[in-house]
Design brief:
Helices cover about 35% and strands about 25% of the residues. It has about 270 residues and is an alpha+beta fold. It has 2 domains: about 140 residues, 2-Layer Sandwich (Fructose-1,6-Bisphosphatase, Chain A, domain 1); about 110 residues, D-Maltodextrin-Binding Protein, domain 2 (3-Layer(aba) Sandwich).
Length: about 270
């Protein structure tokens, strides 16, 4: 049953949402794994500048839509590869069938499956499967982050020449106004080609922060919750929370910073 924004979903409902998210991501990841190749694929279509889709993306999203709405027929659904359903519902599932499609299409290993349930724009349950790590990250609001069955807490560090930062920017764009200060900080920069993988790497402590000038709801809904539950800040470039996502139908991108507190403070200062 839908709950009002004031009360929010009950713990029992949160647990159910998380179980379903974990189950469907695990099943989807197994299917995606069976379709992975070590060489470029031929079933690739261009959607826009630097934006591609494979037949696996489309099939996976259809499967997720059917499964999630069969379980929760009153909920809405938003995915990258299909028209949305009931975005005005109290609960909306937001999915990215394969985050890092270009990697997947070329036979590169970094990609992920991402599923989040939003209550009035606020992620309350999420699961992500990351490749090539082959691990399931999951969280519900207030319950902490788990990698498989192990609880994770991101270690706090400082921004210096030992820092590894993930970055992503708009395809085909040159954005020296913010990339320059990041390079100038002394941090080492990594572009792995998957928002999901990079932010899970931050939550796990392998990267020390992630900065993006772009990000659609399906890119960030799940991993934003995972990062926050691991003790990271997940904010816009001014330091304000990205959530709730108030207009899921909007084509607007959401620039973001993901980092543990000390690195986050330093990055906000740099990007201001």
């Amino acid at each position: 049953m839908a709950r009002s924004p004031r009360t929010g979903p009950t713990p029992r409902l949160l647990d159910r949402l998380l179980r379903v998210a974990r189950r469907e991501v695990a099943a989807t990841a197994a299917h995606v794994a069976s379709k992975r190749r070590a060489a470029p694929r031929t079933d690739v279509s261009r959607k826009g500048v630097g934006d591609f889709v494979t037949s696996v993306d489309v099939a996976v999203e259809k499967r997720l839509s059917r499964a999630l709405l069969a379980e929760f027929p009153e909920h809405g659904f938003l995915g990258e590869e299909s028209p949305p359903t009931r975005l005005d519902a109290d609960f909306v599932w937001v999915v990215d069938p394969i985050d890092g499609t270009s990697n997947f299409a070329q036979g590169l290993p970094q990609c992920g499956v991402s599923v989040a349930c939003l209550h009035h724009g606020e992620p309350v349950a999420a699961a992500v499967h990351c490749f090539p790590e082959d691990a399931l990250y999951s969280a519900r609001r207030g319950g902490g982050l788990h990698r498989n069955r192990t609880r994770l807490r991101t270690p706090d560090v400082v921004l210096d020449d030992a820092t590894l930062l993930g970055v992503q920017w708009f395809r085909g764009a040159f954005e020296p106004e913010w990339l320059g200060p990041l390079f100038g900080s002394g941090a080492r920069i990594r572009v792995l080609g998957s928002t999901v993988v990079q932010i899970c790497d931050v939550a796990a402590g392998r990267l020390h922060g992630n900065v993006q000038s772009q990000g659609m709801p399906w890119d960030i809904a799940a991993v934003g919750l995972l990062a926050e539950e691991a003790g990271c800040r997940f904010t816009d470039w001014s330091g304000g929370r990205v959530f709730p996502l108030t207009d899921l139908a909007s084509p607007q991108h959401h620039p973001s910073i993901t980092a543990p507190p000390a690195v986050h403070r330093a990055l906000v200062r740099l990007l201001r």
